[in-house]
Design a protein that fits this description.
heterodimer, A: 263 residues, mainly alpha, globular, B: 337 residues, alpha/beta, Rossmann fold, Alpha-Beta Plaits
């Protein structure tokens, strides 16, 4: 385990050095990210300028949920961004060979190779929004609820990572799965809002099939209301473990189906 | 050391008719075809040997190398290296091998070369002390000093190849797989790399499997060659045996005195050799005679030539290995039809 952390640190440091080699690229990324976030928040403002409440949630509560949903998303983005490249080109171009000839777990290796600093933007925006509305929403705060809420965060992030692993691994069979990742990952938009605003099929979809609701709305709902910790927090932990198990299973199946590329 | 037994690897391929229309058809009603990129490949390599693994483009060399290195899972058959099956215990297995794919790089593209080595040091758990002596050795053999602080993307191809070989040798592998290590390099760099491979092989008893299209690589480096074509074994043996088997051919070049009026017919007359053992080409006064030295001894050929004409400059060359291999490749292709 210590070795894992050591290698992670070293690989991530390499990536930071790389980012610093190309400063202009990094700055452009940071700016475009901020614009993206601003649009998201403006959207909520526009909705609430028309209606006072959404499914029984106040404007501030919605902002809180939105802000919280950015944290697991940002953590996954920070630590596991390289999976996108697996789906888009690492497998297709045969560059995955490299990971298979090194004496460390290829999944770990590929993930550790990128430390995506852009993600700090998501984390900063998310935390700022939560702080900004924290005075005007009632939070259910007890020692236990805070602990449960904090525990839920890494598991919520794991849901993102699991979904990316599973969809990226499809590239081992279909060669390029970047757009599959994009399509499935794009459904994280549903995590930002209460599931009660969706129709039943959509609600079931984002709860159990592509369970982004557990990576945002449900844990946030718990800290807002204190309701149903078993489902809101326990569900997050359980769902993330189940999806991680499925994802690594698909990944390992994929490794033996890997066909490399001609050279 | 290395055992490959009946290795076979199949790829599914979707057959497309040409053009956009064909692509659409393939999208909705794909016609699948199974292609065996490697079929029943077997060979053994003893410790410390340099094996030349050759074959024309698309013969399946890389596919076999990728099975041996654990990148691809064989459809059937088995390989064992150092008693290990690459696919079973990949993590421990790859500690014992080094891999260089000439057309790819495992170096960190955007960072100075030294960074790659310090990361690999951690990945392969090389101790500080070992790392130092190892870098000193590799530095000496591959002459990395002049560019070790430059970002990898700025290296020339020759520098990059040397850097890649060094990267694959950092953890003292017992087996080194080199897939076209001299591809695209100039003569001086090629020579440099060959020297390095020889030195590594000699000093550390590293077993080397080398694929190449460069005949000089084979002549200078390889104790033995395994040749494959269309996924199958074609030849397995030493270069010397190959030469003995196919290499009775000699080539004689000479320039005849224009006054003697020599023609190919005149040259052949009186030699008493049948057509299958000798061919004569001539371009004005320049003659190129290819003959089988088992049937027509070199001395006889020389004497005969000198008796029919006066020559300026005459030479007899050994069979060209390139020629032999061309024959073998062609034989493989003909045998197929």
């Amino acid at each position: 385990m210590r070795r894992f952390f050591r290698i992670y640190r070293i690989l991530a440091a390499q990536n930071l050095k790389r980012v610093m080699e190309y400063k202009a690229d990094f700055l452009t990324g940071a700016v475009s990210f901020l614009i993206d976030q601003a649009v998201g928040i403006a959207f909520i403002f526009i909705i609430f300028s028309q209606i006072p409440q959404l499914s029984g949630f106040t404007f501030e509560q919605i902002v809180f949920i939105y802000g919280f949903s950015q944290i697991p998303k940002g953590l996954d983005h920070l630590l596991a961004d390289n999976l996108w490249c697996v789906g888009y080109f690492i497998v297709r171009k045969g560059d995955f060979d490299k990971y298979l000839t090194r004496p460390i777990n290829p999944l770990f290796h590929v993930i550790a190779e990128t430390f995506q600093v852009d993600a700090i933007g998501e984390l900063v925006v998310g935390i700022s929004l939560m702080i900004y509305v924290s005075g005007s929403v009632n939070l259910y705060i007890t020692p236990l609820s805070v602990i449960l809420f904090l525990i839920a965060i890494p598991f919520a992030a794991l849901i993102y990572t699991a979904i990316k692993i599973a969809t990226a691994a499809l590239a081992f069979w279909i060669k390029s799965s970047g757009f599959v990742i994009q399509m499935v990952y794009g459904m994280n938009e549903f995590a930002k809002y209460p599931t009660t605003i969706y129709s039943l099929p959509v609600r079931l979809l984002v709860t159990y099939i592509i369970p982004f609701a557990f990576a945002g709305y449900y844990p946030a709902l718990y800290i807002l209301t204190g309701n149903d910790p078993l489902f809101n927090i326990g569900g997050t932990v359980l769902i993330s473990l189940i999806f991680m198990a499925i994802a690594t299973f698909i990944w390992h199946k994929g490794l033996s189906a890997y066909e490399s590329a001609g050279s | 050391m290395i055992y490959a037994e009946h290795l076979r690897k199949e790829f599914k391929k979707i057959v497309k008719e040409p053009g956009l229309k064909g692509s659409f058809k393939a999208l909705f009603r794909p016609q699948k075809e199974i292609i065996a990129a490697a079929d029943d490949i077997s060979f053994h390599v003893p410790k410390g040997e340099i094996l030349g693994f050759i074959g024309p483009n698309g013969a399946g060399k890389s596919t076999v190398i990728k099975m041996l290195t654990g990148i691809l899972t064989p459809t059937s058959g088995e390989c064992r290296i150092n008693g290990k099956v690459p696919q079973d215990d990949r993590k421990n297995y790859v500690k014992e091998i080094g891999v260089v794919f000439g057309q790819r790089t495992q170096l960190w593209w955007d960072l100075p070369l030294t960074e790659t080595y310090s990361v690999l040091k951690e990945i392969y758990e090389v101790s500080d002390e070992d790392f130092k002596t190892r870098m000193a050795f590799l530095n000496e053999v591959l002459e990395l000093e002049s560019f070790i602080r430059s970002p990898v993307r700025t290296l020339s191809l020759g520098q990059r190849m040397r850097a890649d070989i060094a990267a694959s040798m950092l953890h003292r592998p017992k087996v080194l797989f080199l897939d076209e290590p001299t591809i695209g390099l100039d003569v001086v760099v090629k020579d440099n790399i060959r020297q390095a491979i020889m030195k590594i092989n000699k000093e550390e008893q590293t077993t080397v499997i080398l694929t190449t299209h460069d005949i000089s690589d084979i002549e200078l480096l390889c104790d033995r060659i395994v040749m494959i074509d269309k996924g199958r074994n074609v030849y397995d043996g030493s270069l010397r045996e190959l030469k003995a088997k196919y290499g009775q051919t000699r080539e004689m070049h000479f320039e005849a005195d224009p006054n003697a009026g020599l023609t190919p017919e005149k040259l052949l007359k009186g030699l008493g050799a049948s057509d299958e053992h000798i061919t004569v080409e001539c371009d004005r006064n320049l003659f190129k005679v290819r003959f089988n030295s088992a049937e027509i001894p070199v001395a006889k050929m020389l004497n005969h030539t000198l008796s029919v004409t006066a020559v300026r400059d005459i030479s007899v060359k050994d069979a060209d290995i390139e020629e032999i291999i061309r024959c073998l490749y062609k034989e493989g292709a003909d045998g197929d039809e």
